[in-house]
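Need tokens for this chain, all 145 residues.
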Amino acid sequence: RKWVFSQSDEVHSLLALGATGTLLPVLPHLSPAHLAAVNLISIGTQLGSQVYVAFVGGPTMFVNMTREAFGDVQARLFPKFGMVGLSTGTLGLVSYHLAHQKTMDTCSMLLASSLAVNLINSFFLFPLVTSYMVRLREAKKGEDK
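Here are the structure tokens for all 145 residues:
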């Protein structure tokens, strides 16, 4: 247990992606109704988390917290948000792809694009923004001395 908590957010994202990957071999054996349920739950969860972060959680914290506290919370929440997006995006894309005779139509391309954005966010953008936040704080502390 200590090993898991000592790892970086990027490792946690890889672990979430790996855990999701263990479910993928089961999907081809599901009935069409169950595949549709997996797809609906995955895409619904992803959309719901995006709407909540963008229109409820983020604005509420921005208005009611200090800049530093808001940054600290966002630096911890965004990697988890990325993990949800990676897992739901993978399940959504694969379940849709299996349910639609494995063709790459417009919807498949949109789901793949969404997954790509979540990959970029989780492994590049979120860590980069957090490192800039930390560097900015250190620079401000140096100015205050």
